[in-house]
Every structure is written in structure tokens, then in C-alpha cells.
Amino acid sequence: MTNDIRAARRGLFASIALLLGSFLVSADGSDWPQFRGPHGSATDPSGEALPIEIGPGKSQVWKTPLPPGHSSPCVIGSRIFVTAVRDKQLLTIGMDRQTGTLQWEAEARYERLELVHRIGSHAQSSPCADQDCVISFFGSSGLYCYDHSGKELWKLPMGPFINDFGAASSPILVGERLILCQDHDLNSFLLCLNKRTGEVIWKTDRSEFLRNSCTPIVWNNEGRPQIVVAATLRVVGYDLESGKEAWTVRGISRAVVSSPTVGADGNLYLAAWAAGGDESERIRAEPFDDVARLKDSDKSGTLEEAELKEGPIYQRFTQADRDKDGHLTRDEYELYRGLFDQGRNLLLSIRQGAVSDATETHVRWRHPKFVPFCASPLLVNGLLITIKDGGILQCLQADTGKASKPKRLTASGNYYASPVTGDGKVYFADEQGRVTVTTADEEMDVLHTAEFGESIYATPAIVDGRIYLRTASALYCFGAK
What we know:
By secondary structure, the protein is mainly β. It folds into two domains: 9-274 and 343-479, YVTN repeat-like/Quinoprotein amine dehydrogenase (Methylamine Dehydrogenase, Chain H, 7 Propeller), CATH 2.130.10; 280-341, Recoverin, domain 1 (Orthogonal Bundle). Helices cover 12% and strands 35% of the residues. The chain has six helices and 33 strands. It has a five-stranded mixed beta sheet with strand order 14-15-16-17-21. It has a four-stranded antiparallel beta sheet with strand order 1-33-32-31, with no helix packed on it. It has a four-stranded antiparallel beta sheet with strand order 2-3-4-5, with no helix packed on it. The longest helix is centred in the first third of the chain and has 25 residues, at 3-27.
């Protein structure tokens, strides 16, 4: 490579980093622009005082009834945006931030609703927004861009996808670009659009990745802005400018639901968990040929659900049957069996400078215990904090991965909402509607537990001394004053 080419590339990276940096600065302040807030950090940067005791009637500023939905609120300027489902209508809703008043709603049209998990929603993906627009995504319908008054600016139809759990990964905005990752049983992809027009800038094939729900983040990797996605068996960094794969780290779980995060140290942190990936609870499946010899009763050379009747692949038949024709070929079966063999549940950290296959060169540490499923890890005060289903709370030193003794919260349900932090406190919400407030330090002392009496799936937003928390039927606003 000539010096002129090297200089040109350095100039391009510097320009992109400058553009990205200007976006990140503007996204701070008084905004919570996407799932898990500024940069996907789940952290309120304002430093404003936050209440310890929250709950119905406690520190409550307002409460607004909402149609059902699992999407998390985003907050931009004077507006709050959420998505919801009312009588099979897919809605984007704009609200007044100060009062909680509903200001507008817009409907996303569809030909048929996607299939979703038994506890899922047709409004699972969280919207993202900036000062110009708000963008919603529905797996049944596609992407919709509105201005802050609810006027539709553009739409991009897509879905339903081949996935009976439904689409759950959320879009993010990076300056003038919109990023969306969709990993399903077939035809997975990473997409970059012009946020103002909806025009496709690039689309990267991810066919090797099966259904995942990881929302991407932006990682400034030694001056190179990259889109990071954790998914089937590996983490990948994609070049923001071109969509090309820049690096990978292998050896994670067979599926990933939670999202990565970037520390103040510039390093990357993530959790990857799927059933059968714990060393103490490995799932094994017998080879196709051995199973077919006993169970392929019609000698068709494929396996049907009625023939299998039992076993780990039978329990996940619709996932293993990628083309949904009702028949498991040898290739489909062995692909899924291989996921059980290779998948490993773990927390890990990746250092700056990752290039190519960085599995052996840039992994700072791995930790295989008490790995969360849905709730994304939280970085605060040099600590990596996780909450696992059952209310198992764990704290690791971010620089070494050394874990302190875990504790179990009285709120011992499943955790679909991710923890958020501000003002030296961490807020956790379990599926049963119990919110626990702890200190944001290694002791993780419990300060308060609230009972909302209904389920919580959405991750709260924290902006300028206000906590916006969505339950099954309402959006609450809490404040210290």
C-alpha cells in the first residue's frame, strides 16, 4: 500500500470519526434517543438527582395509559415516542414529555401479522429518534419515518420474516444513517439507510446467522467507527462506511438476545446466553444418521415432527426447519446439532484494535457464570453489572472480569428489561412488575423494591432527573422533585 493510499484512508477514517463524534455529542444532553439510551449505554449522563422510592403513587410525576407493547420509550427534546398495538393496529405514538399527554399516533399498515413468541408482542422493537425524525420498525410491516408531529416522511415495507418468535432487534441512528439488523431463520441481513430518504446505502448478507435479537451498537475501534452485532457463535464488527466485515471474535452462544455495550475505557463488553450453552447443562443431540435409522418411518430421508416426538431438536423443530416446509433435511438437522456442540454461554470483553479474526488476540477476558439471557450488561463506575433470570445479580471488575459473590434479589422473576443507571443508582425491573433500586457500586445494596402489579418488558429511559417506565398498560414518569 502506498503512502498516498494510507494517508487517504487515515483521512477517511478521521472524517467518519469526526462525524460520528459530533453525532454522539449531540445525542447526549437531554435525550434518550434509542433502545438503552445514548450510545446504547443505559446511562443517564446528566447527573441529575433521581428518586430512590418509585412505584404507583411514589415519586410519581404522571401516569398515562397506553395500548400494549414491549418497546422501550425514546425521549427527544419535548417528545416521548413509543410503539404499541391496539386491536391489531400497529401504532407509533408521540407524547408530551412534561405531562405525558398523547399528542399523535400513526398506524403502520400490513398484509398479515408476524408470528411472535407466546409472551411476545407485535410492537417489540424500540423506536429511535433525533431532532429531525422518529423511526419505528415492525416485523409485520417494515420501517416508518415520521417528523416529530407525526407526519410520515418515508417508509420501507418488509416482513413478516421467517421466525415464529417475531422481530425484536431495534433500529439505531448514527448521524445521517439508520442501521437495522435482522437475524431470522433465513435471509438475515444488516441494513444501512439514509435517514432522510430511506434510500439503501448498503445491505450486508448475514445468512449464516439464525434468529437473534441483538440490537447493534457503534464502536469507535481505534478511530474506525464500526457496527457491532453479537449473534450465532460469533461477534462481528462491520465497517460503518461500507458494511464490510472488519473483525470477528468466535466462541459465543448459539443465539444472542442482549446487546453489547462500550465502556469509558473504549473496550467492548457483551453477554451471550442460550439454553444448553452452560458447561454444567450442555444440550447434546444425536447425529442425524443415528436418529433417522430409528425414526424415519416413511424412509423419506428427512425427519418430521411426528417422527421425532422427543429430544432437543424436536423441542425446537420450527427453528431447525429453516425453510418451514415441515421436513428436517440432514443439512438442517446437522446445522442445528452443531450449534449445541459449539455454543458457549459467557460474558466477555474485547479490547480496542480488533482486526480480522481477533478471537485469540483481542479478547481481554471471558466469564462463564451467571450469564444473563435478555437483560443487557450495564457498565458503571468500572464495574460490569448483570441480572440473570431468577434475580441473580452479579458484579464484575470491568478491567479483569473478576466477579464478586453474586446475590439474589427478592424480585426473582425473569428479566426482559435491561438495567439502567443514573445518580449512583441502578434500576432493575422483572417480568412480574417488581422494580429494584440498588447502589451503583460493588456492594449493590438494595435501596428499594416497588410492586407495579403488572408485567414489565420494556427497558426504562432516564433523562434529566426523570425515569420513564413502561408497564403492560401505562407509561409512568418518576422524579425526585
